[in-house]
Amino acid sequence: MALNDILQKIRDEEARVGREVGSTRLIAVSKVQPLERVVAVLDEGHRLFGENKVQEAAGKWPDLRERYEGVTLHLIGPLQTNKARQAMELFDAIETVDRPKLARTIARLAEEMGHCPKLFVQVNTGEEDQKAGVMPADADGFIAECRELGLEIAGLMCIPPVDEEPSLHFALLAKIAKRNDIAELSMGMSGDFEKAVAQGATYVRVGSAIFGERDYS
Ligand SMILES: *Cc1c(COP(=O)(O)O)cnc(C)c1O
Predict the structure, then answer these.
(1) Ligand 1 in contact with 131 (CB < 6 A)?
(2) Can you give the pTM of this predicted structure?
(3) What are residue 134's DSSP bridge partners?
(4) What is the radius of gyration, based on Cα positions, of the chain?
(5) Which of 51, 105, 130, 136 minimizes the number of CB atoms within 10 Å of its CB?
(6) Virtual torsion, Cα 161, 191, 177, 174, nearest 10 deg
(7) Where are the domains of the chain?
(8) At residue 116, does pLDDT exceed 70?
(9) Is domain 3-211 annotated with CATH 3.20.20.10?
């Protein structure tokens, strides 16, 4: 099955670049996929998934969590502040913290709810207008701001521009993480996860290479 091929490729790349084998976790990105494909991957024993929309995740994961123990769910798409509470109830990690207002909302809710998902700051490494994330030059300041709010920033996340060499963006993200003493790096998708592993990804987010193409029609 495709899942095992991807896992093997990750392990092979870790070995090739001299990283500890097993140090990169695979987030199976299940957005838009038909339920039977998601269930097939759960039946294979995989438990780490990513969704990019709160509403879509709310429609399937509470049921799936009842049927399958030990599921971990990451939010990998933009989060509006008015959906923050629901996101914090649904997700084990939010990878898209990218602005002070959202950070303040999460901090307030975390206090109120008594728990907080694992948090990643999204960095717009390509400085693209249409993309979410803090600009690389603002990343250190924003991370400091989050920490002052009492938030623990576990990792950084990026989505490189489609038409640029992703390795450069992965390396930039790794550099920002290192100087801010941040351990986790979420980077790499179906087309470039091996390059992300080579640059130190601790999470790769792979959708279509596991589940097949997404049908948006
Ligand atoms: C959809 C998505 C992915 C997975 O994309 P594939 O190319 O299907 O592997 C990864 N990261 C984010 C943020 C996404 O929205």
Answers:
(1) no
(2) 0.98
(3) 123
(4) 17
(5) 130
(6) -100
(7) 3-211
(8) yes
(9) yes
